[in-house]
Amino acid sequence: MTVGSGFDLEWRARFERYARTQPDEASVSGWSEAGLARRLERFEALLPALELRPPAEVLDLGCGAGTYTRRLADRGYRVTGIDYSLPTVARARGADVSGRAAYAAADGYRLPFRGETFDLVVTIGVLQAVSRPEAILAEVSRVLRRGRVAVFEVLNAWAAPAVAGALRDRLLGRPPRVRRYRTAAVRRWLGAAGLEPVRRVPIFLPPRRLGRAAAGLDLGRVTAALTAHPALVNATAQAYLWVARKP
To answer: Please, are residues 127 and 136 in contact by the beta-carbon 8 Å criterion?
Structure first.
């Protein structure tokens, strides 16, 4: 993406470093293996409700190592994966042995596509690493066809660990490592971009300190238990997958 601040510069350099040095796809995006697996599981569970039939045109904005791009291409969609990190795009291309998807280095603030090109735009792991998320959503809306949807991830500012971390950063006088957002702000950006929120799916992630031990957790059961009590969701969901439609 176009570098808009020191925050953007730091994340771009970080992703380029991860692509050159990290051994697995999760680490290339700065996630744990359990975190990537959980995000992917929740995303794939959403797909049937999107009513998107192959060979629809899909953009994976901020494709990282290409995990989502390949999954979507394997389902028969025509997918383009873009990322602003050249080393990351190279990792994605190298992992795609089927060659079904297209990849390119591109700027999320100025997407190199004509308006209303795609039937679905996927933006996972991006908004927390940019200084102007509202500008990214405006570009998502521009390239999305009318009547179609975008799916994007937003880190939850109200999650208890996020609140504690923000307080700690403030007391220590250090800037936040990632950006987390409140629901009201996201709805405001969607309205400005001409998008209508359709659904918001909570993502509950195991603590990273558990490492591989997290693989034994039944997160499906945890999710069911927490979502049965709506008052608990906003304090425990680390992130949300938003679905928004362009009317």
So the answer is: yes
